[in-house]
Amino acid sequence: MTQDIFATRVQSLKASAIREIFKILEAKDVISFAAGAPSPDVFPGKELAAFANELLADNYSGALQYSVTEGYTPLRNAVRERLCRQGSVSEKDNVIIVTGGQQGIDLAAKVLVEDGDGVVVESPSFIGGLNSFRSYNAKLFDVRLKEDGMDLEQLEQILKNNKIKLIYTIPTFQNPSGITASLENRKKLIALANQYDVYILEDNPYGELRFAGENVPTIKSLDTQGRVIYCGSFSKTLSPGLRIGFVSAREDIIDRIVVVKQVNDVHTPILNQMCAYRFMTECDYDAHIKKCAGIFGQKCAVMIEEIERCFPKSVTHTNPQGGLFILCTLPEGSDSKAILQKAIAKGVAFVPGNTFLIDMESPSNILRLNYSASTEDKIREGIRILGDVLHECLD
Ligand SMILES: Cc1ncc(COP(=O)(O)O)c(C=O)c1O
Prior knowledge:
About 45% of the residues lie in helices and about 15% in strands. The chain has about 400 residues and is α/β, with parallel strands linked by helices. Strand 3, helix 7 and strand 4 form a beta-alpha-beta unit. Bound molecules: pyridoxal-5'-phosphate (PLP). The site of pyridoxal-5'-phosphate has 14 residues, from helix 6.
């Protein structure tokens, strides 16, 4: 079989290393810090089971029939109302329910990015975003992530010298770094976008999971020109398996996304949307999120304590105030992918940094650790093992 049956735009796509690591882990007894998921302990299984039962027993035609592409209207209204109440988006913006935040990113890319268009991404960034842009033949440019967000001097040089259509950013509890862009950084970013007439895709699936520090306004809330497309998700606050996300943007952008979604999957599964709506409105969603964030914050503290005790001093780490990830930086010249093989052999896994970069082939000295999906005991044990592996490889 020749490879040339495949369209050029998908030939260079690589399977997510994270999904590949999962395959190895399934076969082995390994403590995994590779996941990007909340702990199943916080899934409200009983509540969702009761809603699904009732929905299917009482009025199953609504739950099982085709529905509108924009989303189950009560859920769509509830999401919109919540986003407006939080000040994340404005009353003028429209909302569509999508099949996970991933579909939101992909549909935004599909409606905005033409072959060869310049798209700026953070370095490091989320592989699902990178692969979406790759699949529309975007020309990718990366911008270093600093402690307070994107390096805006580097960004401005790129904007000056290239035709950029879109900036993709995860400003709050970024994946993979856990970094949150400061308000100052966000204001300058939107000012640059206005100056160079560039759109921004603000991806915010983790924003509600804050366990320390003060809330920072979304970039969307600073947008006066309708150039920010805001993407959110129920995956980290309710359940990733439900596959429910949302996009909020200017009406004409949402209208385009609606048409394009019709080609993709017609609409997001309606039963899932109904269950999510009932959970949101009948179960104190805020209290649920607060509980999740509290648990993740505690686990994060345990992981950081163990990292500081067990890792070589040459390894630095981020200090997230929310979300699911810590990013570690090894000394210059280290290759976290090579270290992963040794770590798995000793019983612990993480995601190597090359996964999060435009150039996935070159060695990378960063690695991502997830703290939300493991128990505190497993975090302590896994970080101790990883510490030994790192001492072996780096000392
Ligand atoms: C930054 C970021 N955006 C979007 C997503 C997509 O999540 P989902 O499609 O499950 O909503 C993820 C998932 O890990 C993510 O990390």
